[in-house]
Specification:
The chain has 244 residues and is mainly alpha-helical. Helix content is 74%, strand content 0%. Helix 1 packs parallel to helix 6, helix 2 runs antiparallel to helix 3 and helix 4 runs antiparallel to helix 9. The chain is globular, with a radius of gyration of 18 Å.
């Protein structure tokens, strides 16, 4: 992994994007904040802590899935990927560079949800590190998925729409903004194959929002860890790095 490239690309694509169009950062937060507001109103504040944890998961997952639109544009329009192919930079460096750039771009949202989590006593000294590891693995897994799928998209106009659709489906249907115990075990166990489900179950358990067994905590964490490794390997190994 080339640290100099990661730093340069993070500044180039992350920091410069914030300077050029900060309004897009606010747009990026609109859906999670709207869901937080609706959940607060509908449940009269009872589920607001679930909405905060879900919002943090949603921001991190959107980071990864939004790579689809970014990567398609950089591959087909600006041809940046063609330039990188001609260098010693590989797909793993490219994935990590875009992941860090998008993380920097969405850092205002991450900071906002961390502040809300502290205000509502969701975060404490005991669960902060496990939750940080959880959302980092989620970012890693979704970024890898985004990179692989982006390499298959044939035209720029499909990239952003596909990214938005995938992000909405994988953050609204799984138990991200509501307790996973609302679903029968026969349903949420198969949904563990989705990284957002595994992350949500672990997050809800580690923050004591749901009374979760140690076994379920370990299973959800291991599933997310294995998915992160597997999806990263698949994206590097089987994605289309060089154009035919």
């Amino acid at each position: 992994m080339r640290s100099s490239f990661l730093l340069a690309f993070t500044i180039f694509y992350g920091l410069s994007s914030i300077r050029r169009g900060f309004v897009y950062v606010l747009t990026y937060l609109s859906i999670p904040l709207a869901e937080l507001f609706l959940i607060y109103i509908i449940t009269r504040g009872d589920f607001v802590r679930f909405a905060i944890v879900g919002g943090l998961i949603s921001v991190m997952a959107n980071n990864g899935f939004s790579l689809i639109g970014d990567l398609v544009f950089l591959r087909l329009e600006s041809r940046l990927q063609d330039l990188l192919v001609a260098t010693s930079i590989g797909p793993s460096d490219y994935i990590m560079g875009l992941m860090f750039a998008n993380l920097l771009y969405s850092s205002p949202g991450v900071i906002l949800y961390i502040i809300l989590a502290l205000v509502y006593h969701v975060l404490n000294l005991t669960n902060f590190i496990p939750l940080l590891i959880d959302i980092t693995l989620l970012l890693f897994a979704t970024s890898s998925i985004g990179f692989f799928l982006a390499s298959l998209v044939p035209h720029t106009r499909y990239g952003w729409g596909f990214a938005g659709l995938l992000s909405s489906i994988l953050t609204i249907i799984p138990p991200v903004f509501y307790p996973y115990t609302f679903l029968p075990k026969s349903l949420y166990i198969p949904l563990l194959i989705l990284p957002t489900t595994a992350s949500a179950i672990f997050s809800q358990g580690i923050t004591n929002l749901v009374n979760t067994s140690v076994e379920m905590l370990v299973i959800s964490f291991l599933v997310l860890l294995l998915e992160s490794i597997l999806f990263f390997f698949l994206s590097v190994r089987f994605s289309r790095w060089r154009e035919r």
